[in-house]
Amino acid sequence: MAPSRLALAVSAALALGVAATDARAQQSKARIEGVADEELLEAIQRAVGEAKTPATTRFEARRRARAAADDAIAALRTQGYYGYEVEPDVVDPDDDEGGAPPRAVIKVTPGPRFRFAGAGVAWVGEEPSPEVVISADQAMAIRRGAPGRAADVLAAEGRIVAAIQKRGYADAGPAPREVIVDHADHTVRPTFRIEAGELVHMDGLTLREIGRTNADWLRGLAPWEEGDVYDPEDIAELERRLLDTGAYDSVAVSLQPKTAADAQGRRPVLVTVTDRARRTLEISAGYSTSEGAGFDLRRTRYNRFGRADTTTYTLRLAELEQRFEGKLALPHWRRPQQTLTMLAGVYNERTDAYDAAGVMANADVTRRFGRTTALTAASTYVTAGISLDASRSAEKRRVNNVTVRDQERSIFTVAVLGAAALDRSNDPLNPTKGWRVEARGEPTATLGDVQALYLKAQAQGTMYFSLDEEAKTVLAGRLKFGTIGGAVVDEVAAPRRFYAGGGGSVRGYGWQAVGPRLSDNTPQGGLSLLETSFEVRRQITERWGAVAFVDAGAVGTDSFPTGDDYSVGAGVGVRYNLGFGPIRADIAMPLNKRKGDADFQIYISIGQAF
Questions:
Q1: What does the domain layout of the chain look like in residue ranges?
Q2: Higher pLDDT pick, 267 / 579
Q3: Residue 19 and residue 103: Cα distance in Å, rounded?
Q4: Got the DSSP string for 497-555?
């Protein structure tokens, strides 16, 4: 670029920047003068706010200046400045400003910042137990010498009340507090006047508008016994247990007032639930160059048996797989936070490695430990179950340097499942921080044309780390390992071996393309698996994001993959946030390409890769 053009471009950019800055300044309700502290100035500016249009008359400008002065005083007190002077004013434009409108101005002298010189609690009415008094003092947490912010006074009062309520005083509340602001020594001394009320004991549930839900089942979800001391977390826990089922549009749980107490003084808890639509129909689709297109139709019915149950019928039609399944989930089965899931279905699979068709059924019980948490995935699960599978399958083999389809084998498989999962991430579909760990073991026996007894074990861990407070940039990593012990490859039915490659595994490679292959690239599967992934996720706009990633994996014919088994792929992708989770589209290339591997693979699905 020529020097003159460069200078012109820089000048134009500076002019636009100055114009934009001036436009933003004119949008402020009032110009603020006399504040040197940037943090305080920003707080006052937020309190004053902006105006859509400039004032057109002196009367309007003065009205805005007075309103801005009131807002500035509130901001000063919030930040601990009580010896302030705030003067609203109107500034007329200069003659050379071409008839610009008058401007509202506030002249601020903040004065010294006041500090806390102590705080206390004064009880209104009967004082609660000594333990509660100590808890209230500890919850106050006002440090001597800290800035005397009005917001900190309000927050301390809220903590005190919450601490008292937590210990059974449900009606605890604040009376008008006393705050001494001493202008002589620039100190603040708050005294919180608290009325604790009586210790409250809880009764059972009062059910109102519970729709199709069985009343006895609902009563069994209460995390307290009749006569227990009130705990607000128990109320919240019951509400979360009901919401976690997914069967309700809304749930409300609240302690009844004193007037509803029984002869022993116990107060019932009112529960109201609103059923979600009885039936839903969902349609989804996905595509990858390795697996082709897939179509899913899911019909769900809620609360058929009156216990927040979910019945789901799923039809999957894809190039490699066709499947129809029915599943029944019974949340809080026999005890709270325990789910019984039963599933049965038929399937037909036609992959490069094998062909299989059969029927299957399984049942498992998942126990969730600890308090549930709203809007997060922080959970600990333990699962035990059993599965049955009857199939006819055939795999490809190499005979006299020729790949042939082996004869079909009838196999009946019985497997027992034991699994555990710890989820400390902040979102099930789009995590930005935290971690997840899961492990599962399946003692398995096969009968029929293949008879074997072996243990299939897998473990996986993922971690998410945000580089900034807004989680605009997130680092994500995954490590997975699996092994089959007690059998050789030929004794393990092809569908139950380990495979790698594809959108949820090692991107850049085809479905099942990582690991041992025949000379015509037919996957064989193996007895061991190792996968790892690393992603850099960047949110660009509210809806759009981008990803760069590297995946690596190996499948071995022994208990652990060897160095020759590893394959590495790398690529980039885009994400579009739907609100509940992202749609992802990735393109990846194999970095150690073998004969038969495509130059790249494309994957489209819902949710992050891991």
A1: 27-109, 115-195, 201-275, 279-606
A2: 267
A3: 17
A4: SB-B-STTS-TTS-TT-BS-B-TT--B--BSEEEEEEEEEEEE-SSSEEEEEEEEEEEE
* The token pair that represents 525 in the structure block: 């599967």
Chain center to CA of 523: 37
Which CATH fold would you assign to the domain 115-195?
Ubiquitin-like (UB roll) (3.10.20)
User: For position 96, what pLDDT does the model report?
Assistant: 47
27-109 and 279-606 have identical folds: no
Distance, CA of 527 to CA of 494 (rounded, Å): 11
Burial 291-312, CB ≥16 within 10 A → b, else e:
beebeeebebebbeeebbbbbb
CATH topology of domain 201-275: Ubiquitin-like (UB roll) (3.10.20)
Quote the tokens at residue 415.
Answer: 């497997």
Q: What is the pLDDT of residues 513-563, one digit of tens each?
A: 898 887 777 888 899 999 999 999 999 998 999 999 999 999 998 888 876
pLDDT in tens, 198-247: 999 999 999 988 889 999 999 999 999 999 999 999 999 999 999 999 99
> Which residue stretches of 200-288 are H helix?
215-219, 232-244
Supply angle C-alpha 609, 316, 278, rounded to 5.
Answer: 95
Classify each residue of 217-226 as buried b or exposed e, where b means 16 or more C-beta atoms within 10 Å of its C-beta.
bbeebbbbee
Best CA proximity match to 280, nearest among 307, 256, 301: 301
Hey, what are 451's tokens? 């008879």
Domain 27-109, architecture per CATH: Roll (3.10)
User: What is the per-residue pLDDT across 26-45, written as a single tens digit (0 to 9) for each?
Assistant: 467 888 998 888 889 999 99
Query: What does the pLDDT average to over 84-108?
Result: 79
DSSP assignment letter at 119: -
Inform me whether the pLDDT recorded for 54 exceeds 90.
no
Alpha helices in 198-231 (DSSP H): 215-219
Q: In angstroms, rounded to a whole number, what is the distance separating the alpha carbons of residues 104 and 60?
A: 9
What SS3 class is residue 431?
Answer: coil
The amino acid sitting at 474 is V
Dmax (CA) of the chain:
101
CA distances, 246 to each of 77, 208, 303, 331, 335 (Å): 45, 19, 10, 10, 17
Which residues does 225 contact at the CB level (< 8 Å), separation at least 6?
Answer: none
Q: Considering the domain 279-606 in this protein, what is its CATH number?
A: 2.40.160.50
Say which residue the tokens 């005397």 belong to.
148
Q: Which of 110-114, 389-393, 605-609 has the lowest mean pLDDT?
A: 605-609
Q: What pLDDT, on the 0 to 100 scale, is given for residue 277?
A: 92
Q: What is the end-to-end Cα distance of the chain in Å, rounded?
A: 46
| Average pLDDT of every residue of the chain | 87
